[in-house]
Amino acid sequence: MKMKYFIDSHKGATLFWVLGVMWYFQIWDNIALWIYLALHGTYGLLWIAKSIVFGDKSWERETSWWFGLFGIWGGLSLYWITPVLIAMWNVQPPYWYLAMSIFIYTIGVFLHYASDMQKHISLSLKPELICTGLWARCRNPNYLGELLIYLGFSLLAVHWIPLAALTSFVVTYWVPNMLRKDKSLSRYPDFAAYKKRSWLFIPFIW
To answer: Is the pTM of this model over 0.85?
Structure first.
């Protein structure tokens, strides 16, 4: 079975997971939890839409049921810790903090989906090095967007555990992927110059 089926189904299940957490803890008046439901739930639906319209070819690879359930579903479920913590401790962040989380998430959504769409259209028209638009100064704006998306709703728990889970994904999966991509793109004559004028992941930092 293709990897994307496990990924897409998990993303789509997020909405029901959060509602299940709210029902289990019988907590229906927590604004942080409702905002989390809106943010992560919407992200899951947008991901499925992206998978159908301009999906990532790397997720087309076949995988075993064992890895799909325990590796993909199990790993992605670490992101589901946040609503549990919010409900368990009835976390009530101040309004400015909620607004900050939504602000970070919204910028992330733009970067992630717009850059992936640019990549999809560019490669479908002419397979070559993409170094314009959102990719001009950052070689992985899609990963940067995804980082901001997850950071936006992970912050709602006001706890270090969701941030640790996000960091583990960045360190063990995202960064190695970015470095492998750099190595692959080095076959293009213009890549050396592009690498000098752009950031790998986070502008002005790295």
So the answer is: yes
